[in-house]
Amino acid sequence: MKDFILPTDDRDMGTPARQGAPVTLTIDGFEVTVPEGTSVMRAAAEIGISVPKLCASDNLEAFGSCRLCAVEIEGRRGTPASCTTPVAPGMVVDTQSQKVRKIRKGVMELYISDHPLDCLTCAANGDCELQDMAGAVGLRDVRYKAPDQGGLANHFEARNTSGEANPEWLPKDDSNPYFTYDPSKCIVCNRCVRACEEVQGTFALTISGRGFDSRVSAGGVGDDFLASDCVSCGACVQACPTATLQEKSVIEMGTPDRSVVTTCAYCGVGCSFKAEMQGDELVRMVPYKHGKANRGHSCVKGRFAYGYANHKDRILNPMIRDSIDEPWREVSWDEALGFAAGRMRALQAKHGKKSIGVITSSRCTNEETYLVQKLTRAVFGNNNTDTCARVCHSPTGYGLGQTFGTSAGTQDFDSVEQTDVVIVIGANPTDGHPVFASRLKKRLRAGAKLIVIDPRRIDLVKSAHIEAAHHLALKPGTNVAVVTALAHVIVTEGLMDEAFIRTRCDWDEFQVYAEFVSDPRHSPEATALLTGVDAQELRAAARTFARGGNGAIYYGLGVTEHSQGSTTVMGIANLAMLTGNVGRPGVGVNPLRGQNNVQGSCDMGSFPHELPGYRHVKLPEVREIFETTWGVEIDPEPGLRIPNMLDAAVEGTFKGLYCQGEDILQSDPDTKHVAAGLAAMECVIVHDLFLNETANYAHVFLPGSTFLEKDGTFTNAERRINRVRRVMAPKNGYADWEVTQLLANAMGAGWSYTHPSQIMEEIAATTPSFAGVDYALLEEKGSVQWPCNEAHPEGTPLMHVDEFVRGKGRFIVTEYVATDEKTGPRFPLLLTTGRILSQYNVGAQTRRTENVVWHEADVLEIHPHDAENRGLNDGDWVRLASRSGETTLRAQVTDRVSPGVVYTTFHHPDTQANVITTDYSDWATNCPEYKVTAVQVAPSNGPTDWQEDYAAQAERSRRILPAAE
Question: What is the pTM of this model?
């Protein structure tokens, strides 16, 4: 397998790049021109001269502690550190004089004198910067002798009496499941501490002690890495130049010898990674420094939680059964596909061509998702295709499409570095999108202001070195009222950008909107009782946003998963247009997409009313493009959404489903209704990695492939199309696109794709926003953001720069309509749901990794006041009940939630939080109202009858007959 290497310099340049006027200097006789502010070290690297270094790295600000990078500069005294010395016009630098060579060798002797010389057996052998630098400076002998063992022991004993200890005698810290900390190998370069501060923004590490007793500390006395504030992002491990912080996978398997650049398959940030290999075995995932979404950073999931690919639960052989009451039996691919195709065709013959459909995956590649929606339109002959975006960001597509003219965010992630004031509404970036959160926190530490609109006190409200200027802790379900009240303040106090509105928006529509929001009933004072937000705090937040300079809005599922999700999205767009915050760096409306390819699955035409590129299926000129390409006739009538499919199944008119990579039984609302719909179907085909909850009701199981086993593309939350590259051969024998093609051909399709690049060529030929995209461009550029076409051959980082996609921006009246889900005497509390850092969505992947160390079960957060009223203590079993159902889980008493509000995650199927949620949904898109459910909480002795019945049914459904001899 050929390694992938981008045509980009992957060296560590020592210090960050700068922007400024050109400065010309001479280094070792070579002239070089670099931007003002560039360090001498980086300037030397630009012309291929490597200056030895240990404390410097180009993702960290210069520190100047190791003194290994000393140089001589003509006309200056001494030997300054090249990492902290900026270039100057006409400067003449000597990096290789005898004087600096002698200094470097002496410095390196001191480091080596206090370092174990076990290089041959060290896990970092061959991948150790200390080892490399010793060779670079020509160190061959060490004059300084370490004290004898007795001396060291006496020294340790003496230091112990004062509470300190020599690091050489401190035990290795193995508490973190993914990496170790060995203090005996620490050279106190501070790189791990600085990475934790500058890159991650957690400030979990520090240096304790002095001199030879200095060491990295992960908290207070007695704390280890697992007990500390460390979030296991891996920044410290990546920064470490020795084996002090080392991946356990490297210790066990050895250093990797090649790498393949690919894209993470977790959240919508879309981080680029180097999958570092030994042969076809993955050793570690290292964030790729040239990844334009993550800029060399990562989180615990992308960095470490890839072990599910080799988990024992993974199903690698196709399976079928006639009834869901029977055990599974393993069969050949041909038999499984023939069984599935025969059943689906029989259902269509008996119940009509619209009796079957598909659910595409936001986990799979663009190419795979494109084929699944093509399967239903070109092979099944209907438009019954939907995707998980239905239950997360479908209101984004509708709301932004109506106001701006396109169904996607306006900026790239780099844009946050130029923002002055940020609104985060209905999102928890530190848990859901941690790499973006780190970039946001860095900007906040540099002086940007933050407004958090959330019923829960998320970490961004206040944590290490950051604090929100305003936290509007609104009552769940009142997003529209709060957003409209913000607009009321901006309009009535004359804080809007009139010039922008007149130039870029429809002025007549604005007049209608302005009259609407100016009504006193929308004032913060009038809505305070409804929303629970203090009127003066809301007014102050509105002024901060309107007057603060570049204003950016980032939002998540706390906006979209409501009965008025689309209305809130339109209200957010109104706010951005009111203040002129669209069309330049540092501003915009930015949905934080939840899954790795949820943007792409929408782009590829996964919705029942839209063909790829968000073009309505009723338009004959659009259908003609695909009819010509596919050689079939396309139904002009929109198909069924996921909720409609389930309703129709219960009614007896929808009979067959091909579900690729989605677990709707755990992820969709009103679990009992989902189960009833699935049970009523006569052929459910599940295409996945594991026997998930939906597979309990399946008749065919087609094994899936992980992101490590395929080629293709993902499209992240910033519209960035990133390459996914095959790291290893598919363990099941086929990539997911091949499985879909095999199923289509079993039904008579006659497809003949041999590589995903051919599918992308078809996408480009039929979809205007992808017209310029091909694999050659992605190999050259690394990634591009759509639209990418003749007008934008290198992609579009910023949308709506000169005008909106629809022409004039459209202000839309956002009337607040209370949800039908109401609290009352039986159900007095409001339940809202969300995610946690270590787990991901339904947990199918992360629950099968060591991430369970941090979150082994879903818990219910409840305010101390509500807990006391119910006689509940932290850790008690509680019964959580709604009008839809009930479940039990442990209580966590915390003031992170407001009185009257409870919160839980949905990562574990034994909790089945969605048995509680109702079938209320967004008025425009049917996106479920996960975030507002009236509930009651009471003490419990353990699982409910329903949970026990569910667990028993799941166990029966997962029986697999032993393979025939």
Answer: 0.92
